[in-house]
Amino acid sequence: MTTPEHHPHTDHEHVHGPGCGHVSVPHGDHVDYAHDGHLHRVHGDHVDECESSEHTVHDTHEHHHGDGCGHVAVPHGDHVDYVHDGHRHAEHGDHYDEH
Predict the structure, then answer these.
(1) How far are the Cα atoms of 55, 71, 90, 91 from residue 64, in angstroms, in the given order?
(2) pLDDT at position 1, please?
(3) Tens digits of residue pLDDT in 69-93
(4) CA dist list (Å): 35 to 24, 38, 62, 64, 71
């Protein structure tokens, strides 16, 4: 699992948590919330943009993600991640990455 970088999201007055209205996504030791095309992570008294600095390939992934695949789609910047087995997958060429 990659370590998220610390990118505080400034001017964020919304409080993320159970029932906040945003899709929650388990991510390692925390929960991300899909909001405005990116993922927020609660971090103390603020939220961070939850971004990894590494490229981590998800090996042996035979399932193809897309419309109707049965997994939660989460907009993430210029692509869509899919929640699968407790983490997010993002299509990257001929494979999926762990996000």
Answers:
(1) 19, 10, 11, 9
(2) 43
(3) 888 888 777 888 888 776 778 787 8
(4) 10, 6, 29, 24, 18
pLDDT surpassing 50 at residue 2: no
CA distances 59 to 63, 94, 95, 96, 98, Å, are 11, 11, 8, 8, 9
Nearest to 38 by CA among 79, 1, 71, 68: 79
The token duo for 23 is 């899709």
Flag whether the pTM goes above 0.85: no
- Asked if pLDDT for residue 3 goes beyond 60, the answer is no
Residues in the chain: 99
Three-class secondary structure of residue 51 per DSSP: strand
* Cα distance between residue 54 and residue 45, in whole Å: 26
